[in-house]
Amino acid sequence: MIVLTAKSPLLIVSAMVVLISAAQSVIAAQKVAESATRVCPLLVGSEVPKLELRDLQGEAKTLAAELDGKPTAIVFYRGGWCPFCNLQLGQLQQALPQLRELGVQVVGITPDPPGALRAVTSKFELEYSLLSDSDMAAAKAFGVAYRLDDETIARYQQYEIFMQDSAGNPRYQLPVPAVFLVNSAGLIEFSYVNPDPRVRIEPELLLVAARGVVRRGAENSVAP
């Protein structure tokens, strides 16, 4: 029988492997994938990155301030020009009362500029926050950013879909649509990432996952 002590080489090696794997995950998440199918999203258990985004008025706002220590559904979407994104935004609004009853808020993040956020908020009468990530900093940090291929760029331009960064330069990157459920401690407890932009998380599944986050939070708060 092998007895492992706190100083056992096997334990030390195991700990190093875990630390290296976590570090590699963070590094990979910060890169821009070559396609939507090759993104490397942050893993469950990861801490929400420290980021500064822009609100509807174009004012700088940190993601931490937006989360404010509350359980949150962080939703990455491609833009107001995407019909599948608009459908999802509407579904989130419909699910919002049930999420709020659970104590869960919704924050949408998109490469769209603040003006486009104001337009979509007004159009769909959204009651949750949207933040602009024109430079793709959040999408990169969460590991959902990818490059558009030449064929897709040409097709979008035919439809007069022109994407720019905060400086007005062409931007040929998008986030893979994704949902990250974050607990009150700022840790990711659930994620849904699908490279097919036509497929989004069902509101029912989001609610089930949100209930799980809230339940675990309540259990942890009373644990000895």
Description of the molecule:
With 224 residues, this protein is α/β, with parallel strands linked by helices. The chain has a single domain (11-222), classed as Glutaredoxin (3-Layer(aba) Sandwich), CATH 3.40.30.10. Helix content is 40%, strand content 17%. It is built from seven helices and nine strands. The protein has helices spanning 9-29, 63-67, 83-102, 114-123, 137-141, 150-158, 203-222; strands at 52-54, 60-62, 72-76, 105-110, 129-132, 145-147, 173-175, 178-182, 188-193. A five-stranded mixed β-sheet has the order 5-4-3-8-9. The chain has a two-stranded antiparallel ribbon with strand order 1-2. A two-stranded antiparallel sheet has the order 6-7. The radius of gyration is 19 Å and the shape is globular.
What is this entry, summarized?
By secondary structure, the protein is of the alpha/beta class.
